[in-house]
Amino acid sequence: MVSKHNPSGNKKRSPLSIFAVIGLCCFFYILGAWQRSGFGKGDSIALEVTKQADCSIFTNLNFETHHNDVEIVEPSKPKAQVFKPCDVKYTDYTPCQEQDRAMKFPRDNMIYRERHCPPEEEKLHCLIPAPKGYMTPFEWPKSRDYVHYANVPHKSLTVEKAVQNWVQFKGNVFKFPGGGTMFPQGADAYIDELASVIPIADGSVRTALDTGCGVASWGAYMLKRNVLAMSFAPRDNHEAQVQFALERGVPAVIGVLGSINLPYPTRAFDMAQCSRCLIPWTANDGMYLMEVDRVLRPGGYWVLSGPPINWKTYYQIWKRTKEDLKAEQKKIEELAEQLCWEKKYEKGDIAIFRKKVNDKSCRRNSANMCKPRGSDDVWYKKMETCITPFPKVSSASEVAGGELKKFPARLFAVPPRISKGLVEGVSVETYQEDNKLWKKHVNAYKRINRLIGTARYRNVMDMNAGLGGFAAALESPKSWVMNVVPTIGKDTLGVIYERGLIGIYHDWCEGFSTYPRTYDLMHANGVFSLYQDKCSFEDILLEMDRILRPEGAVIFRDDVDVLNKVRKIAGGMRWDTKMNDHEDGPLVPEKILVAVKQYWVGGIKGNSTSSAE
Fold first, then answer.
1. Where are the annotated coiled coils located (predicted)?
2. Which DSSP state fits 284?
């Protein structure tokens, strides 16, 4: 009997249906294996999704300038503290050279114009706003001669220095005719006269120091002679002079010859100049001239134009007596002899001295020589009234400290400090390997950001410069690099100068000696690993934001765990960021984080901000 629950009874399944089921199972098994093998489309689609879902906040960064078209986009993840804009009164904030704090210090020896950084409780924890109407600076070489008024809205120098041809205000721009106090007819003619005595044209002179630089027109015009000048001037009543220099695309820092050493190594510069810099060279028994001698290379040149040179012509204009000026010049020449300098030229307003290549023929009657100290330990060290001794030589013709090749050959030649074994842990072989490595790194950076190496990034800073490999690989007339050697790391700044590059000592726990918005591109290699137990990442990043121009870029290279912390903080700073693998692949724990600062400006009132109009 057939059950009503099983109308077909005990009917058996046919062999055909069983074979069909087995066949389908085999087909799907083979199809799955084929896709897993990498030849199927399913795997490529999954791979593409994986590529798109990387660890970035932003998958695509735009490095172009486009401020009028950009709206402020607040980063949404990872969740981070959002930093508010500072009040617009801080637009030109320089943390370690603020006027209110400076006035609390003695005026003797310009102490009040030196670095005086805020204590922890006074540090700002906000974003420094750009002035309303801020624009991307003109590209070099046009920037040498023109600056947008909106970027540095200070006209006082156009009045104070009108007859000296420093700067003129025309329409909505400042024009820099290339004049100076001692070269009102232009820097080119002045440099031509110097070049009649000093071998500027053949690459013998590559690094120069301009003490009391004004708007750095001398340094600006030395660049076309392939000379890099480190210019400095205090933040004083000559409003924004260093800010103008950097806006023009010329290397400069806020600084002064005061009571502490200049932040440069011994034997750094091929020449130094004072063009009516008004530094009292004979004060403190010649201490300031001795400091210039410390940083001047054996065989280097010192140029003095201005008081007391040509005192017979100018004594009435300078409102000083003939006797006073004559005595001052005599004292300078006596000090020069003690320093082992020879006067090579004096005509009109210019005197040129040359430092001898060694001390074999020096006439130093009981000169007060400085006591040896560790390397170039000058950070916040008191300047002393003593003469830095020449390195020892074995013959009268040998250049003390080592002879340098002419530029550009010296850029990749082995620096004397390395060939003589003066840099701990660095040999000729490791130096050459470092150069190869940085060429590889910079090529990788250019693949990430095609604008690197173009005039888009004129002012570049390497925050942890090492042996200068990044700057050397990037070397181009289109840009210059401020090579920063952290004071808590290995002292390599002397090597950097021997390569024909420029730089400065600095501690990144403090504010840098520059104005806001003065660098287009910043490179931070291992900076945060170096400082992770020293000071707050937040403080360093906020200082970087202060220094970086709107729509400027940053390249971080560090351990992935460190960069994840950096990226989280940057997420609250109006920066767009993207994480990239190391050039050698994803298994290398060192990564590259790139960032672009968004364009925004200070509002009219209080802390409000606005995008460009």
1. 315-342
2. G
